[in-house]
Amino acid sequence: GLRLAGISARETDVLRMVAAGMSTKEIADKLCYSQRTVKSIMHDVINRFQLRNRCHAVAYAMREGLI
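^ thats the sequence. predicted structure below, dont judge the formating
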């Protein structure tokens, strides 16, 4: 479910992997998701917090202590 910060465990996992420099395909393979699911998760996070892109999402999550 959602945590107090408004980010799910699944979103946290994806953000951590993006922060580690993994590609969408690598993340999808590791988590047994489709690439479309990974992109959708990132899109949802970026829209929810009104961020610009993946890099901005990772920076925001780190700054807020979410990852």
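DSSP finds four helices and no strands in the chain.
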